[in-house]
Amino acid sequence: MCDADPLAPPAVARALEEYRGLLREHGPTWGEPTNGFVRQIETSAFLLNEHDFWITGLQQLLARFPDASAEEIDARVPELDAAEVVRDALAGRALDNLAVLRLTADGASLKSVARTLLDGRDLRTTLLIDSSRSTPATVRIDGADHEIPPGGARLVPITSGSGVTADGTPVALGALVQRAPAGRLRLRAGFPCRWTVVDADGQGWYPDGAPERIDANRAPYFHGDDVVLDVPAEPLTVRVTRGMEYGTAERTLTPAAGAETLVDLAPARLYDAAAKGWFGGDMHVHMNWTGDTVGTPAQAAAVQQGEDLHVLNLVAGNVAGDRVYDREALEHWAGDDLPWSDATHIARLGVEYRNDLLGHLYAFGVDAPPGRYHTGFIGAPDWPPNGDGYRELRERGALMGYSHPFHLPANDDDPPAALLTSGRNCSAREIVADAALGLVDSLDVVNHSSIQATAVVYRRLLGAGNALAATAGTDAMLSFQRRGNQSSPPGWGRVYARVDGPLTAASFAEAVRRGRTFATTGPWLELEVDGHGPGDVLDLAPGDRVTVTARTVGPEVLTVQLRTADGVIAEGPPGEITAELTVERPTYLVAVASGPPHPRSMNHAGAFAHTSPVHLNVDGRPVAREADLRWCLDYLDGLEEMIRRAARLDGPAQLADHLDLLDRARGVYRSRLAEG
After folding, report:
1. pLDDT confidence of residue 3
2. For the chain, which has fewer Cβ within 10 Å, the N-terminal or C-terminal residue?
């Protein structure tokens, strides 16, 4: 068995070896049944983010089927050719991991970005064959023929020593590499950190055996302390940080050839959440979920310590078929802290419960594996409703919330139809019903999809009287080395929860359930209302006044807002902002911090933080804003229409179960309207 992990018990080790076999046999899809997401996985290593795949792929399909409906286009996404999508998305560019062989009527030419190699080492890369010919072509690589149709494209793994011919003519690969003498770095911070080592061309350098991960900002990185790696004896830049509570330290140097150079470098702390009783968690991380490498418990431990991530929820979940990745790890460790956990770092195995039409949900703190992990895959019905599946997870002690909820931007005054777009795109469509029925605890306001749209929906749900905590789940995947946000380090988005007493899985989950949280891409954000914080309830009389203060820490913050159910009551620059509010009717107060794109943030829309609410009850009544209640009722009507139109169901009884859930949620919202 290769790449043995000392933290993996036998059943987990066997599963990891099985995953390695799937990767060798099938590439990054691991042999999953083909759907749109699996097709996108084939392109992950070559596109800057998953949106490039969807934009380019949909453009190709619309050009081929201009009269097709949105549902028909969505159904045809698996027909896309990954190589053709990569070719069109890159529009002629070669990458550091992708050389381009162009076949034209005049011959063949190679375009590449030269990679620096140390003496005696070979390059493994990928060749994109791109033909503009009107006739078929044959490219022979290491003895195997690849037939390229007119105007076609292929992705083929090669090495710097491969033999390549196009129509019998040799193709020189010398431009793929440039050689350099080797030096050696020893990197030491005194505690585990995230390191980036790049040369003058931006090429990353890694310790032997480390995954060659690149984050959403295209920065190479790895984790550890007192780490040794071979590097070129040429000018290098070394950067070190440790998650969002730290800044970044940097040094430039030229290592000596044939010698070891020590770099003592440590990042400075920006804030210390644990010292204030707050602990940050990432509720949605995959150790394995297909990909171009295999994630291991040892890697998860290194990442959690290197990011100083207090709580790590590693979720077992399926992709497109029945296989549930990391199920074996869940079955072994369910209910227990993972072996590297300590007083300020808790890691658990959890669940991603998945239905692509109704939404995906994280479950944290389960004490046993569930009987059901997903619905609606490989032709199975979209049944039972998500809410029914959650009951079993609740019985197993789970804290639960919707993950990566919405994908397209939305405004505060947009109708619900703006969120109920067609297609099985994993949007959290059932959240409006499940929140009313108290089936979920939180919403991942910070996520890798649209934070802005999710925040809009979150505030609608709060205004309609739903008690939901703001949480964060990155959907980071240790089994991907290049996948934008999802190959970024876990914890780039965090939910901070104010915990009573020592940090445990139970105390953290209880703090989230009580709404004592804020979600952030990096900024520290405090909310105080007359000495109370998020999750607290103030019982007031009409005309009472409260003082509201928000405080931020972090260089990426530009603007801070204080908001009630009716909108913004104060706005100002970072640091501290205070407002007085006269309360006439039930409402809530939240704080929101935002800023432009920043190196500390893996969210390209910009820096962001959002608190859970302080609840302002009046005469014993909680908030139930009419506009938000009617918005939720309109949303449920739209969701019913979508389920009737798009759900895969076996007979009227299954439809009736969905309609019953929606009707019960409508009853909750209508009763709140009547009481208001």
Report:
1. 60
2. N
SS3 category, 542: coil
Main-chain dihedrals φ then ψ at residue 345, nearest 5 degrees: -140, 115
What is the edge-to-edge ordering of all strands in the sheet holding 124-131? 107-111, 98-104, 124-131, 153-159
**Residues with pLDDT less than 50, the chain:** 1-2
Place of tokens 């003592």: 264
State which H helix or E strand residue 262 sits in.
Answer: strand 260-264
Judge contact between 329 and 316, C-beta under 8 A: yes
DSSP 33: P
Please give the DSSP secondary-structure letter assigned to residue 252: E
How does 162-190 read in b/e, with b if 16+ C-beta sit within 10 Å?
bebebeeeebebeebbeebebbbbebbbe
Distance CA 227, CA 187 (A): 5
Which residues are bridge partners to 591 per DSSP?
562
pTM (2 decimals)? Answer: 0.97
Place of tokens 């139930």: 624
Whether 519 and 609 have beta carbons less than 8 Å apart is answered as yes
pLDDT score for 477:
98
What is d(CA 663, CA 8) in angstroms, rounded to the nearest whole number?
Answer: 46
d(CA 554, CA 574): 9
Residue 319: closest CA among 406, 426, 401: 426
Distance CA 617, CA 622 (A): 5
Q: State the pLDDT at residue 50.
A: 79
Distance CA 329, CA 18 (A): 13
Reported as a single tens digit per residue, the pLDDT across 395-447 is: 999 999 999 999 888 889 888 988 887 688 899 999 999 999 999 999 999 99
CA distance 535 to 496: 13
User: 178 — phi, psi (to 5°)?
Assistant: -135, 140
Q: Are 283 and 473 in contact (CB under 8 A)?
A: yes
How far apart are the C-alpha atoms of 561 and 550, rounded to whole Å? 8
